[in-house]
Amino acid sequence: MTKWNVEELTPGRTVEAIFWPNPALGSQFKLRATHLDGRRAPKVVLSNDDRIVAGVPCLVRVLAVHKPERDDRGRIEVEFVSRAPFRIEGMYLDPIVSKKLQVLLQSGVNILLDGPQGCGKTVLARAIADTLGMVFVFFNCGAVVEASDFFVSIQVRASDSGAPVTDFVKTDVLVALEEAAEHPDRRYLVFLDELNRCQESARNALMPALDSTRRVFHPIENTFIQIPENVQFIAAVNRGREFSGTFGIDAAQLDRFAPLQMDYPPPKAEVEILARRHPEVSAASLEVIVAVADAIRNAPDLPGSLSVRATDEACVYLKHPLFADDGKRALPEIMKSSFCARFPGRWDDITTDAGAVWGIVRKTLASHKVPLPDENA
Ligand SMILES: Nc1ncnc2c1ncn2[C@@H]1O[C@H](COP(=O)(O)OP(=O)(O)OP(=O)(O)O)[C@@H](O)[C@H]1O
Ligand SMILES: [Mg+2]
Which residues does ligand 1 sit against, CB inside 6 Å? Predict the structure, then answer.
């Protein structure tokens, strides 16, 4: 991309930058950046604003341009506006969700990511931790039956004499809580995946930990321990659109999280995601794959939905030499397994959901002029 012109950088303009400690010895400015919005700046960009964190993308406002007429000298002085919106490499994030997420992460409240299957909840949580330099702790709640399961798992093994012994093994969550207390300088992101799938009673018992008391029972030490300030929770729940409102978490529990609604990327963004991952697949094929997925996702009356994993899988087939030669002609066959088989029933049984999906596949492929197999042959 081209270099900025000095005239473009008028005072008041807001741009994004990453600052690093200013290497110039004796300079009155602590922080320096060389690029604004990804384009090379015409002069060094300097600031002393304490709100800027080195290495973390932020939005800054141009305060003044010194010596605009000189190519070899001068500086652009800026002040901090806000942390830059999340942009996570290879991941689509709705701009509004991104803004809200930023506010919530800064305030430290617990976040509930709520969205259909395979819309990127897990990838997002991990990416947040990476982006913000937090220690990421992944915990799947699907197997939680009792509240203590969040913190310890019980393992039975044979002792030397052969008699069974029970070991209490700390879960990653408990290990993280203990570590966080010892390392107040680190920040921990505990991700509770599939929170809707654990037993309700267990979830209830976890709740005091998540609200203002921030205390949990340590089942090995038999005492309550405090959850350190440097631990933030993000939970994810997965529900099909048709179940909206009923995902087994009651209002009091929900109230302890700031809910954030996620959805599938818009078709254009999904095509871009897939194009980056599968450069071998033609743009035309990607359009068709995403158009079919979009039609399935928007179909009324279908239970469940179609994740980005499904469109990704279709690309994996399509680019393989065994299918690549057929080009778009291979799509109907691929979609029978990658799309229809994700629903109950069979693609060739119209009374089932898989059959209904096959109907949508055929219709959408036909409208994109993809040749269909003759089913009466
Ligand atoms: N918005 C997105 N941008 C980029 N990739 C995405 C997006 N959503 C999903 N994907 C891709 O789809 C796959 C599934 O994503 P992920 O596991 O995060 O979904 P999820 O919402 O956690 O699903 P589940 O509800 O089944 O747990 C990953 O390969 C991910 O990279
Ligand atoms: Mg997930």
Answer: 91-92, 115, 117-123, 238, 265, 273, 307-309, 312
Determine which residue's CA is closest to atom 11 belonging to ligand 1: 308
Contact 253, 141 (CB under 8 A): no
User: Among 85-89, 231-235, 259-263, which is the least confidently predicted range?
Assistant: 85-89
Fill in the amino acid letter for 145: V
The total domain count for the chain is 3
Q: Where does a domain end: 28, 56, 83?
A: 83
Q: Is the backbone of residue 187 left (phi > 0), alpha (psi -120 to 50) or beta?
A: beta
Judgement on whether residues 43 and 115 belong to the same structural domain of the protein: no
Region 115-143: mean pLDDT is: 89
* Cα gap 357→253, rounded to integer Å: 36
Sign of CA dihedral 272, 356, 335, 247: positive
pTM here is 0.74
Contacts of 215 (CB under 8 A, 6+ apart): 208, 209, 224, 225, 226, 227
Residue 376 banded pLDDT, cuts 50, 70, 90 = low
User: Which of 89, 122, 123, when mutated, tests ligand 1's pocket best, judged by the most ligand atoms within 8 Å of its CB?
Assistant: 123
- The percentage of the chain sitting over the pLDDT mark of 90, rounded to a whole number, equals 53
Same domain, 357 and 236: no
Distance 277 CA to ligand 1 centre (A): 13
What is the C-alpha separation between 115 and 149, in angstroms, rounded?
25
Instruction: Give me the pLDDT at residue 245, please.
Output: 44
The domain containing residue 58 runs over which residues? Answer: 6-83
Q: Which residue, of 212, 228, 261, is where some domain finishes?
A: 261
Residue closest via CA to ligand 1's atom 29 equals 309
Distance 119 CA to ligand 2 centre (A): 8
Mutate to test the pocket of ligand 1, among 260, 309, 313 (most ligand atoms within 8 A of CB): 309
| CB of 216 closer than 8 Å to CB of 209 | yes
